[in-house]
Structures are given as C-alpha cells and as structure tokens.
Amino acid sequence: MTDSTRKYRLRPGGPWQTLLPGVYLTVTGTATTDQREMAALLHAGPAGVITGHAALRRHRITAASPEIVDVLVPAKVRSGSSSFVRICHTRRMPEVVCVEGEIRFVATPRAVADAARELGSFREVRAVVASAVQRRHCTVSMLARELEHGPSRGSRLLRAVLAEVADGIRSVAEGDFRTLLKRGRVPMPMFNAQLHDDTGLVAIVDAWWPRAGVAAEVDSREWHLSPQSWERTMRRHADLTARGILVLHFTPGQIKKEPGTVLATVTTALTAGPSRTPLPIRAIPS
Q1: What is the pLDDT of residue 224?
Q2: Residues 6 or more apart in contact with residue 93 via CB below 8 angstroms
C-alpha cells in the first residue's frame, strides 16, 4: 500500500482511523475493547503480553473495560507508552501466557499482582483477590508466590490483603467486618472456623468466639437469596442455636451504614457469653 493510499483512507471523514502510531482501525466509529487490546499488542511488538486490569477482564474476574491497557514487554524492547497503552518493561516476562483469539495475556496470579500495584485502596485490592480466589482462578499460595518473585514497589496493599486472607477472610464483606472489629477494639474471632461436636462437623461460620460461644455470619448475598436459600439459612441457624451457639447475622449494608449498632451487638453477646456453661464445640481454624 502506498503512502498516498494510506493517507487517503485516513483522511478526515475517511473509512480508516489512527488508533496508535502505526496502528490503524479499518472501520469508523468507536473502537471496541477487543480492538483496543489488539492495537495495544501491535504497538508493543511481538513479545508483548497484556497484564493488569485488561487481563483480569479476559479472565472474567472483573467486567469493566479499563481505560488504560497495560502491556508487558522485555526490558530491552524500545516500545514506549502511547495514548491508552502503558508499556511495562520487565526482566520477568511470563513463561506461559493465555491466548484468546489473537490476544495474549498473562495468567491470573500475574494479572492480580500487576493490577493491585495500580489500585489505590485496600478495599479495591481485597475485592480483586477475593474474586480471583472465590472463582477458583487461582489459589492464595499462587498469589503469594507471585508476590514473592515480583517487584516490591507498589505491593504494600497486596501484601496486607494476603496477610488478611491468612486469618481466614474469604470475601469483601468479611474483610469489612474484620476491619470494623479492629477499629472497635473488639477481640478478634476465628474467621471461617470449622465447628465440630461429637457427631462431627456442625458448620463453618464466618466468625467464631470460642470462649463466648458466639458465631457471626455476614450474609453477603442479602439481595440474592432464593426461598430455598433462605430456608437453608434458617435451618442452619436453628441447628447452631440448638447446640447452644449464639448466632449473630449482619448484612454488608449494616456493617457499612450501622457500624456502631453492629459493634454494640457483638460486644453485648461477648459480654454475656462467658457466664454460660462452656459448649462442647471444637473449632478448627480455616
């Protein structure tokens, strides 16, 4: 194709448009997310691999299309950032990559770690980690290995979240509950503890204070409970109560909007608990 033909097709109102230097979209209108990511890889060169938030979207961990597409390239490659593409030079290119059509992107642990370095809040990082682990895209140990081998710069929030996960936190709502308890100086419970009696496993509760015989459940699916789910919840509550366990239920909305009430309820239950006869319940940490 001659320069004149290319320029003619890229003329104002013409059928083509420039997305990035040397990268052209051969249709009019707004570029789709897939087209932007393909353009980012073409701009980065043949060694480029998408990472960060764009890779999380590819893994179906997040749904939003990021404004910036992060692309890993070897340290010696001279490609530079441009427009919506951020070139990330690294000496640790992934040995294995995922492929969807023509799009190359990193595996989940690397995507989570790279995205976490760009997030500005503990809660945002917690949400990404919880989503990746709960959907079984990766394990906590895989994230820990990625954190160990990756750069320390910008990893503070991810380190804090993984430390929280080690305490048994499994979801964003449970993490908010833990943060509230720490802020209110309430004794820390065992999170996601397995409760056993002489018959075997009784239940796994979100939070457990063994000395007081108090369990707390964070009902994080408060707006999505079917009648069958609600009946299961009620049977479970009745089963725990029959064994002498005091069960407290909180919704994510209560934890955010009524923190004082939640703390007062927990404190009252923990104060009354030790006066009761110790329960024959054995707890195993998460």
Answers
A1: 42
A2: 47, 49, 72, 73, 74
